[in-house]
């Protein structure tokens, strides 16, 4: 253990600054004791090169063992992960197939429902067209009947008018003959 400062020079410096010789020596000896105590504590925590080499070799052997264990675990876990991954792939394929089947089924059901609705709409239009045609025929028949009746009444009116005119003419000719 060596102190890397001059204790005598420190004593002289303290004396120059107003300390007595005895005070300066006491201060310097206290500083030396404190420094020695600190160095003892530091040396307790330090290791020698031999101890450091031994500790390094122990750590390296532990690291080697851990590496071996990690490689073994990695291989076993990797194979387990690979088999689990294969299982998940198979399950995904099955689920995908089921989903595609369901989609196909829903599409077929929708097409069927759409075709049924189209046929119902066509049938409804056909019924409406038949009803409209029947209504048109009834209207045409009624109009024809009304025209026939109108013509019949027209002829009757012409007959009565002609009869009335001839009657009036006959009466007028009769009065005319009587007065003449």
From TrEMBL:
Source organism, top-level taxon: Eukaryota
Gene Ontology biological process terms in this record: calcium import into the mitochondrion; positive regulation of mitochondrial calcium ion concentration
Locations listed in the record: Mitochondrion membrane
Transmembrane segments: 160-179
CC terms in the record's Gene Ontology section: mitochondrial inner membrane
A Pfam family matched in the record: CCDC90-like
InterPro entries in the cross-refs: CCDC90-like (IPR024461)
Keyword Cytoplasm: no
Record bears the keyword Heme: no
Keywords, sorted A to Z: Coiled coil, Membrane, Mitochondrion, Transmembrane, Transmembrane helix
Family indicated by similarity: Belongs to the CCDC90 family.
Protein name: MCUR1 regulator
Protein's organism: Origma solitaria
Name of the gene encoding the protein in the UniProt record: Mcur1
